[in-house]
């Protein structure tokens, strides 16, 4: 059972058992983890059904126990599949290593995310892991973590105060997403862009890569003003925005829609279908179940997304916490990169089977 706390947080003792799905995915060998240096430890081993076996397995790969340690987790949200899975599987891995979890999720509210981090500081855990976040609003709270001498770790959130950030290679994601879009529309056309989260590190990187790639496609134009997606009611809001834009942009005036994540694109694809348009293609990231369903539909406008290794990311973050708290900071790199998996209409079913998504 996952404890999601919005009031004063309460620590949860280590769970005696591992998630079956974690074991199945890891055992199947779908991990494509790559460290940013040779000293970056591997993504970890399959989770065992018993804590003793899990700790023996961890020891075999150089990951120490978290017995007697408390790890605070502050997620920005569990609204979409990526953040929810990382949140759940990070808790599972900490518990498998013998640690105690204090978990919070901010319901996609920046002010609550800040309050959650500050609440964790007051509880003096041995480490804090932050999942996603807005750099502008969250950085002052992370400075307080540093001042309290609590080791900070992050997932998909770059911070000067973080001992380690686990993330996908967002430069590769961004450039591949942009190049795929550009080639699919023949190197010429007009693109609507959702760009509502410039302060969120993965979105900033992916957007910058879009701009960089399009320097070599001078006949592709980004339509202005750019669209502003939002966390709450994302799909419905995006659908309304695209419906409005399709009414004002006839065939030939828009060829594709880009976003740094899948949620608004699900609404975009729905709007395109409702309008009976077959001239607009959709591109996103995160391999949300709804996006995968649309990509699997040969008649849908949704063309491409990117799956991230949520189980491996969560496990790597917990393992890095364990190494650091064991005095092995030299084995913890500043950033741990994991390979993305690109999903198209041609391979969507295979990816779903391989990754269990």
UniProtKB/TrEMBL annotation:
It is found in: Cell envelope. The keyword Signal applies. It comes from the Bacteria. Residues 71-328 form the Periplasmic binding protein domain. One of its GO terms (cellular component) is cell envelope. Its main location: other. GO terms for molecular function: carbohydrate binding. Gene3D superfamilies: 3.40.50.2300. InterPro entries: Peripla_BP_I, SBP_2_dom. Keywords: Signal. Belongs to the bacterial solute-binding protein 2 family. This is Sugar ABC transporter substrate-binding protein. It comes from Zafaria cholistanensis.
């Amino acid at each position: 059972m996952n404890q999601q706390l919005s009031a004063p947080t309460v620590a949860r003792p280590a769970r005696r058992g591992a998630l079956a799905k974690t074991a199945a995915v890891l055992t199947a060998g779908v991990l494509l983890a790559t460290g940013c240096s040779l000293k970056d430890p591997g993504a970890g081993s399959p989770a065992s059904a018993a804590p003793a076996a899990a700790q023996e397995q961890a020891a075999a790969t150089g990951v120490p126990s978290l017995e007697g340690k408390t790890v605070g987790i502050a997620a920005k949200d569990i609204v979409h599949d990526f953040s929810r899975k990382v949140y759940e599987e990070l808790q599972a891995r900490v518990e498998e290593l013998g640690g105690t979890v204090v978990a919070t999720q901010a319901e996609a509210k920046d002010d609550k995310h800040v309050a959650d981090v500050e609440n964790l500081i007051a509880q003096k855990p041995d480490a804090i892991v932050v999942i996603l976040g807005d750099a502008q609003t969250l950085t002052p709270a992370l400075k307080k973590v540093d001042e309290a001498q609590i080791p900070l770790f992050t997932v998909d959130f770059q911070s000067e105060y973080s001992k380690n950030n686990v993330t996908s290679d967002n430069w590769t994601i961004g450039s591949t997403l942009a190049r795929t879009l550009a080639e699919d529309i023949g190197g010429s056309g007009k693109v609507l862009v959702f760009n509502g989260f410039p302060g969120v590190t993965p979105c900033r990187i992916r957007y910058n890569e879009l701009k960089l790639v399009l320097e070599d496609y001078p006949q592709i134009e980004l339509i202005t003003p750019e669209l502003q997606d939002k966390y709450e009611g994302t799909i419905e809001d995006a659908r309304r925005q695209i419906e409005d834009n399709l009414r004002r942009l006839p065939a030939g005036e828009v060829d594709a829609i880009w976003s740094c994540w899948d949620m608004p694109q699900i609404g975009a694809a729905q709007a395109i279908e409702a309008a009976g348009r077959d001239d607009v293609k959709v591109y996103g990231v995160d391999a949300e179940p709804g996006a995968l369903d649309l990509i699997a539909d040969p008649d849908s406008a949704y063309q491409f997304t990117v799956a991230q290794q949520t189980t491996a990311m969560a496990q790597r973050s917990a393992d890095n916490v364990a190494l650091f708290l064991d005095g092995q900071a030299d084995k913890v790199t500043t950033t741990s990169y994991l390979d993305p998996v690109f999903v198209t209409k041609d391979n969507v079913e295979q990816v779903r089977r391989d990754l269990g998504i």
